[in-house]
Amino acid sequence: MQEKLNQNLIDVIERIEKARIAVDRHRIVRLVAVSKYSTQEEITALYACGQRAFGENKVQDLKAKSEILESLPLEWHFIGSLQSNKINALLSLNPFMLQSLHSLELAEQLQKRLQKENKALRTLLQVNSAKEESKSGFMPEVAQEMYCRILETCPNIKLCGLMSIGAHTDEKKMIQKSFEQTYRIFESLQNKGAKTLSMGMSEDFELAIACGSNCVRLGSVLFK
Ligand SMILES: *Cc1c(COP(=O)(O)O)cnc(C)c1O
């Protein structure tokens, strides 16, 4: 398993580098290994290959894995749809980042809780750029305005950029359109401190990088 994961990681990094260098030699692209379908042994094995950032989409899974692997200096990203009744559980795990801030209501509840506990949390605003009902996130038309509003009203939420899931289709043009739209919003927020643009999964990460992503979230291509 160790050898296989090591090779997967090498292959993935090579593909990321190739996509990155083709568009921008100066951009750094972060890799978050999405471990939601993986075991603690697989996470430990990938850690041994040098990977530090991992992503989970369920609070109970993040809790179980981060507690078991507590002795490793891992950086945990929460990428799932957070329900308000799980806010406390998530905050008690001190994740590195919440990538999926998907509503104003959640922002307000999060702010209250963070303020009470005197904590801050790095966060990305999730944009539903493909406007798919099955996905959460802010509609692209309101994303910029909502980003600014949260910046102003939720001081304990450290907004540092955007996250988006590409359109769910085989049509490359559609996926590209959704990435490009998110990039335009990201660009308009750079003077507000937006630094991270998290776009790209196993099936579309090279396209996402070509469209401006600087953080890819990869699961199946790494843990296959
Ligand atoms: C599962 C998941 C990923 C990784 O998906 P793969 O296709 O396995 O790379 C990335 N982002 C989010 C939000 C996910 O839920």
From TrEMBL:
Secretion signal, residue range per the UniProt entry: none
CDD domains, alphabetized: PLPDE_III_YBL036c_like
A UniProt-annotated Pfam family: Ala_racemase_N
Cross-referenced HAMAP family: PLP_homeostasis
Keyword Protein transport: no
InterPro entries with a match to the protein in the record: Ala_racemase_N, PLP-binding_barrel, PyrdxlP_homeostasis
MF terms in GO: pyridoxal phosphate binding
Role noted for this protein: Pyridoxal 5'-phosphate (PLP)-binding protein, which is involved in PLP homeostasis.
Cited Gene3D superfamilies: Alanine racemase
Residues found modified as N6-(pyridoxal phosphate)lysine: 36
Sorted UniProt keywords: Pyridoxal phosphate
Sequence similarity: Belongs to the pyridoxal phosphate-binding protein YggS/PROSC family.
Residue ranges occupied by any Alanine racemase N-terminal domain in the UniProt entry: 30-223
Protein name: Pyridoxal phosphate homeostasis protein
Swiss-Prot/TrEMBL cofactor(s): pyridoxal 5'-phosphate
